[in-house]
Amino acid sequence: MTQIAFIGLGHMGLPMARNLLKAGFAVTAFDLAQEALDAFARDGGKRAANAAEAVRDAQVVVSMLPASRHVEGLYLGDDGLLQKITPGSLVLECSTIAPDSARKVHAAAAARGIALLDAPVSGGTAGAAAGTLTFMVGGKAEALECARTVLAAMGKNIFHAGPDGAGQVAKVCNNQLLAVHMIGTAEAMALGVASGLDPAVLAEIMRQSSGGNWSLEKYNPWPGLMDNVPASKGYSGGFMAELMAKDLGLAQEAAQATGSSTPMGALALQLYRLLLKQGNGKLDFSAVQKLFVE
């Protein structure tokens, strides 16, 4: 049986690790939050006292952490996790981080004889729970082939974006677009309701028309229009606005590095930063609707 270490049992990591258990893998996990470890243990997973203990006998290591600094802090340095992982093992780094950070960790792993893929995900907490995530993978094609069985236990779409760091580039592009169409949807909903339209009628008109997009189909930001989305639960759960702001910042860094023009992404970042300044950073990113109704 494949032994997997899972580092990071947050909103995304915990359901991903649970799906690995359901697929029959032996999973040992570590997280700084004892509550998350307890929940994982109740599902049949094994708890580790620290990250080094988690990877001790692992053939595959999966990590899902908040930002670049956490990933670099975990893996790099003389006491980093790459020094604890057995050469020949496979690392699936699923966090959303800067492409340059991903390449740095790739290089350090290669120097230790460890195969590493940057494999950020799309699909949100619902996709993580359902095992329907999309993986955007950067790294060697042969490493991806070795990883497919593990990735398939957590997602239904696996794309090889390209070489080291390419998965992260694809992810920041995707999340920039997600932010832009979520903001556009929220703005249009607010305009229509302020002008006297029924929000449910307006949403359906736009969904079936040329304005249709993922936010209207799956994740409407107007409260009460869709069951089981954060907007209908006080914007709780889901993908936090502060993480969207982080990802939009990464997109702007990539734009600066390549000389790309991304005015919509830059505006989206400013609007999400405003949402954070209003104290809404822990809410789901669809809470950007609040900027247009309050």
From TrEMBL:
Enzyme class, spelled out: oxidoreductase
GO MF, one example: NAD binding
UniProtKB keywords: Branched-chain amino acid catabolism, NAD, Oxidoreductase
Active site (catalytic residues): 171
Start and end residues of each 6-phosphogluconate dehydrogenase NADP-binding domain: 3-162
Reactions accelerated catalytically: 3-hydroxy-2-methylpropanoate + NAD(+) = 2-methyl-3-oxopropanoate + NADH + H(+)
Known pathway: Amino-acid degradation; L-valine degradation
Any one biological process term the GO annotation gives: L-valine catabolic process
Its EC number(s): 1.1.1.31
Limits of the 3-hydroxyisobutyrate dehydrogenase-like NAD-binding domain: 165-291
Family to which this protein belongs: Belongs to the HIBADH-related family.
The protein's name in its UniProt record: 3-hydroxyisobutyrate dehydrogenase
Species assigned in the record: Aquipseudomonas alcaligenes (strain ATCC 14909 / DSM 50342 / CCUG 1425 / JCM 20561 / NBRC 14159 / NCIMB 9945 / NCTC 10367 / 1577) (Pseudomonas alcaligenes)
Source taxonomy: Bacteria, Pseudomonadati, Pseudomonadota, Gammaproteobacteria, Pseudomonadales
